[in-house]
Amino acid sequence: MAEPMRGLSVTGLCLRAGTKSLVRDVSFTVAPGQVLGLVGTSGSGKSLTVMSLLGLLPADVQQTGGEVRLDGRRLDPANLSAIRGRALGFVQQAPRGGFNPLVTIGRHFRETLACDGVRGAAAEARMLSLLAEVGFAAPERLPDLYPSQLSGGMLQRAMLALALSREPDFLLADEPTTDLDLVVQQQILDLLERLVARRRLGLLLVTHDLSVIARLADHVAVMDGGSIVEEQPVAGLFAEPRHSRTQALLRAHFALYGEAQLP
May I ask the CATH class of domain 32-63+76-87+170-263? Predict the structure, then answer.
């Protein structure tokens, strides 16, 4: 018997709010150990696509078509809620929005790890190991701090560690560097690259920034108006963009940054 295809795959995804179509016939696959960049301008449907994979769509948005498969197994909305965090980790754009400001960093980890029955000394050891893995030189200082006591870059690292705490196979990162300065952006991208290589994570990297795509992605899907208009290996997309929207994005990128960041 043939083994099921490994990966997180989306086929024919359609999302609608009332009579308005928001996402139309979107299909892609995120493979283990690979980075798929999902790029497009604001309002192109990138973030809604990610929210649909996590079962976190806004109340007024409905999925009207398509399916999601994990290693060949079809997932319905109930499955998505059950595997959120365990199979699919999530890193959001604004890290402060991902933490309860009244709860310490340590309590966030303890409550998350308790979902898998990890408590007490085992939870403390796991938390410190994860914080060290994402680059904290003195992880023992973090658990008693509140989110307001951490910088944006530190919070993003803590969010990455928290997203990894349930050992997901795939990580969904929605604009993970947008609110960070350039030095911290580079540090977070370096960290993501190491995590993908070390853990064989499949990473769906959502961004409007082509320099992030050039730095990290293996393949790129370009969204425009709720649809994927082009998908290519990253080098091919920069060298020979096919769709007019991709060409426009590249022209704007090169006008701002030049061509030094070509993959």
Answer: alpha beta
